[in-house]
Amino acid sequence: WSKLAKTHPKHQTPYIASMVQGAVMMISLVIFAVLKLDPMVDIFSWCSAFGSMSILLLQLGVSLAVMFYFMKNSHLTASLWSRLIAPFISSIGMAVVLFLVTKNLEVISGSSSPLIYVMPIILAIAIAFGLAVGAWLKRNNFALYENVGNLVKKA
């Protein structure tokens, strides 16, 4: 994975990650073409709906993380509003909006295809995979687990 963060010696751009992303997009476009799906109607709207769900889940996770962080580190000084009330309200709001987005996926994606209902499943699998990898690292390679946040800085 660290190779993806490598930058071009002259332009300082993440050229390997860019090539991988381009290849993934080309493969995705070929799959959509084989399935005879419209790029604007299906690809754009489906990816927008998937991106919206992803961002909502990320924001929900951050709000929960703030609350748990301050519970775990009670010696840190922060107002009740900052450490509990605002993140709690945010968590509830994000969960409600995420529920509404998922419930109204046909409207948001502009499609009635049964394939759009696979998106929340893909997102759940990705989250479960990330949590499983994190738990495995914590158990089997604690030094790497503790250093995950610094990996990007080293690249």
What's the arrangement of secondary structure elements?
Elements lengths: L14 H20 L4 H34 L7 H24 L1 H5 L9 H22 L1 H6 L3 H4 L1
Tell how many strands the DSSP assignment holds.
0
Give the overall pLDDT as a whole number. Answer: 88
Give the ordered list of helices and strands.
Answer: HHHHHHH
- Derived from helix and strand composition plus strand pairing, the structural class reads mainly alpha
Shape: globular
How much strand? under 5%
Number of helices: 7
User: What's the story with the biggest beta sheet?
Assistant: none
The portion of residues assigned to helices is: over 70%
Cα(first) to Cα(last) distance is: 10 Å
Low-confidence spans: none
Radius of gyration: 20 Å
What does this structure look like?
It is built from seven helices and no strands. The protein is mostly helical and 155 residues long. Helix 2 packs antiparallel against helix 3. The protein starts with 14 loop residues before the first helix and ends with a helix.
Short overview:
With 155 residues, the chain is mainly α.
Question: Any descriptors?
Answer:
mainly alpha, 155 residues
